[in-house]
Amino acid sequence: MKNFDSKGFTVRTGDKGKKWVLIAVIAVLALILITSCFVVVPAGHTGVVVTLGKVDSGILQEGFHFKLPFVQEVVCISNKIQVQEVSADAVSKDLQQVLSSIAVNYRVALDQSAKIYQNVGDKYSEIILLPAIQESMKAVTAQYTAEELITKRSQIGEEVKTGLEHKVEEYGIKIEKFNIVNFSFSKEFTAAIEAKQVAEQNLTKTRTEQEQALVIAEAEAKKKVIAAEAEAKAILEKANADAEANRVISESIDDNLLDYLKIEKWDGKLPLVQGSDGNIIDLASLKEAKESE
Prior knowledge:
Layout: E1 2-4, E2 10-12, H1 13-35, E3 38-41, E4 45-51, E5 54-60, E6 63-66, E7 72-78, E8 82-91, E9 97-108, H2 113-119, H3 124-141, H4 146-151, H5 153-168, E10 173-184, H6 187-252, H7 255-265, E11 272-274, E12 280-282, H8 283-292
Antiparallel strand pairs: 1-2, 3-6, 4-5, 4-7, 8-9, 9-10, 11-12
């Protein structure tokens, strides 16, 4: 099919369509080429440059960077703090089966991003961290009894953290925090622990009650002693007071007072006396008979 332009020249419609298709293809290729020349490393990440399959020792910081198109690849490694939750099976010193729930906060060191990608890849959590957690937990758990695992959880957590750091630091993994969320034991052991706690609580209660009873008894005994001492003191003071009163009275008595008291007490009758023949003689009657003579 032919068309004529304004000057009378003929233009093939098919050739014009092919031209626009070619332009579009070139534009797309140019866009792909341009976009493959730069990369953006997001915040909290480092870029590991891989040139034709070889990992470069240098890393790219967060931001905009240029790279060789089709030759270089940039792999972004997160350096943010990440959380890994895991369950670990272990055996205690007294051969009790222990299931631990663990939460680990970790991150990849900035200057180790290229090294960890080169040696491990981007699956470092599954390949390095998880096995190290399991191994460290087993090693420390075996040094404590099941009861100590409960009472010394904080200490055990620090020991596991230290062992874990030694295992993963050579790969560029930093352990920020290690938490033992929970310990789980067999039903039989859990029941035994609960029974022991109940027995200890009852024993503590009994001892407390006994101590309270002893304190009360001692207090009552002290009260009785204080009361007895007070009573004895009062008796002594009264005796001393009576003795003093008797002394004063004794010192104040003389012959005149005794004669006065005799007169005050006399009823006017002379006393009766017994004669030599045993008969009672009334001195008053005898006096009257003599007076009548």
